[in-house]
Amino acid sequence: MRVVIADDHEVVRIGLRTILEHCGEDYEVVGQAAGGVKLLEVLAHTACDLVILDFLMPDEQQGAVALDGVTLLHEIRRRHPRLPIVVLTALRNSAIFRSLYQEGADAVVEKAHVVHELLLALRTVRGGRTYVSRHLGEQLAGEHATRTQADGAKAGPQLSRREMEVIRMFAQGRSITEIATLTHRSVKTVSRQKRSAMEKLGLSSDGQLFEYARTHGLAG
């Protein structure tokens, strides 16, 4: 199986390649990238059967706007609708996990467990199934149980995938204009999505929005 690896840390790419090439299975690393822009270039010119990518990858070109997260996943899925995608992340935010699967990720593996779970995730994806790690499954199940525990309990604010992505990108210091350019939306649309998210969360200032993003692992 031909694999492309994308991570902005060279040591991580080396580690992933070592796992794949010394596991005794038929994996061949045919391409690597240090950021989203480069990854799209590699995928455009390299035949592969699966891509492994980090969720957060500051662009390798100094001063450039990064292409990562849900936006990158959406772009890969648009250009390569049948390509299996395995996402690695150090975040523990369930809303992000859900958005990844909604955008077409076939597996999400927490970086803390990548040594033990990567090969299992790959085998699951190769079998045509979606992989959900034990730790992630337990977290999502626990949150679902908490939400439904009390009769008539009011559910927490439900942000859309686009609202969540706007918050994450804004909290990383990107301007509304940059977000609009990167997500192929108008400035007016991005502003409306940011305002809608803040209203749902009960936030009244950018400072509160930054704090929310920080405490929920969205500003990494």
UniProtKB/TrEMBL annotation:
It holds the Pfam family GerE. The modification 4-aspartylphosphate is found at residue 54. Transmembrane segments: none annotated. InterPro entries: CheY-like_superfamily, NreC/VraR/RcsB-like_REC, Sig_transdc_resp-reg_C-effctor, Sig_transdc_resp-reg_receiver, Tscrpt_reg_LuxR_C, WalR-like, WH-like_DNA-bd_sf. Residues 2-126 form the Response regulatory domain. The keyword DNA-binding applies. One of its GO terms (molecular function) is DNA binding. It comes from the Bacteria. SUPFAM superfamilies: C-terminal effector domain of the bipartite response regulators, CheY-like. The keyword Manganese does not apply. Residues 152-217 form the HTH luxR-type domain. This is DNA-binding response regulator. It comes from Dyella flagellata.
